[in-house]
Design a protein that fits this description.
The complex is a heterodimer of chains A (110) and B (116). With 110 residues, chain A is mainly β. In chain A, 0% of the residues lie in helices and 47% in strands. The chains are: A mainly beta (110), B mainly beta (116).
Chain lengths: 110, 116
C-alpha cells in the first residue's frame, strides 16, 4: 500500500523555487517524513527529513502541515542539476528500510 | 556524509553465470544493509535486508536461493545473482544505515547488471 501520494511530474524554471508536494494522510504519530532524490542512473541521495516541525538544511526546506497529512519540499533556487526523481517516504526512525513509491520527476528548465 | 561504495559499477555476463556485487560502508559501521533492484523507468524495489552475522530477510517474491546475500562484517555485504538470466538484468543498489548518525540510510551508486 502506498503511504504517500506525489504528482508524477513537475517542471520548474531554473533559478526559481521548486515546490514538491506530498500527501501522507495516513501517517502515524511516530513516523517521519523523509525526502530523497535520484538523479538518472545513480543511487538515491538523502535530502531532508522531519517529524512535525519545519526543517531546513543546505539543500532544501521541508514544510509539514500542522495535521501532518501533507508536506512540501522546497528547493529555493532550482538549478539544472536538480533535475531528478524526488521521493517522499514516511517511516519510523527505527531500523526498518525505506520503501520507495513512484516519486515526482522534476525537470528544471533553462 | 557517510559513503557507501559498490563494486562493480557495471557488469555484463552470459546467461547461466553467477555475478557477485559488493557493497561497502567506507567510513562507518553498518549492522544493517539493504538491497534494492530497479528496472528501467520504475522505482526502487526492496529485495532484502541484510544483518551482520545473521541470515538475510527477503521480501515476498524474491528468491533467496537465486539472490544470495552475505553480510560477514560491519562494512561489507555481498549480493550474488546465481545462474543469471536476461530477466535479472537490472540496476542493483545497496544501502546502509549509520546507527551513529540519526539513523540516516545512505545509498551506494548502484551496479548495472546486463545478462546476455
Amino acid at each position: 500500500d502506498a503511504k504517500t501520494t506525489q504528482p508524477p511530474s513537475m517542471d520548474c524554471a531554473e533559478g526559481r523555487a521548486a515546490n514538491l508536494p506530498c500527501n501522507h494522510s495516513t501517517i502515524s504519530g511516530n513516523e517521519y517524513v523523509y525526502w530523497y532524490r535520484q538523479i538518472h542512473s545513480q543511487g538515491p541521495q538523502y535530502i531532508i527529513h522531519g517529524l512535525k516541525n519545519n526543517e531546513t538544511n543546505e539543500m532544501a526546506s521541508l514544510i509539514i502541515t500542522e495535521d501532518r497529512k501533507s508536506s512540501t519540499l522546497i528547493l529555493p533556487h532550482a538549478t539544472l542539476r536538480d533535475t531528478a526523481v524526488y521521493y517522499c517516504i514516511v517511516k519510523t526512525s527505527g531500523n526498518t528500510p525505506l520503501v520507495f513509491g513512484k516519486g515526482t520527476r522534476l525537470s528544471v528548465i533553462a | 556524509g557517510a559513503v557507501v561504495s559498490q563494486h562493480p559499477s557495471r557488469v555484463i555476463c552470459k546467461s547461466g553465470t553467477s555475478v557477485k556485487i559488493e557493497c561497502r560502508s567506507l567510513d562507518f559501521q553498518a549492522t544493517t544493509m539493504f538491497w534494492y533492484r530497479q528496472f528501467p523507468k520504475q522505482s526502487l524495489m526492496l529485495m532484502a535486508t541484510s544483518n551482520e552475522g545473521s541470515k538475510a530477510t527477503y521480501e515476498q517474491g524474491v528468491e533467496k536461493d537465486k539472490f544470495l546475500i552475505n553480510h560477514a562484517s560491519l562494512t561489507l555485504s555481498t549480493l550474488t545473482v546465481t545462474s543469471a538470466h536476461p530477466e535479472d538484468s537490472s540496476f542493483y543498489i545497496c544501502s546502509a544505515r549509520d546507527l551513529d548518525s540519526t539513523n540516516e540510510q545512505f545509498f551506494g551508486p548502484g551496479t548495472r547488471l546486463t545478462v546476455l
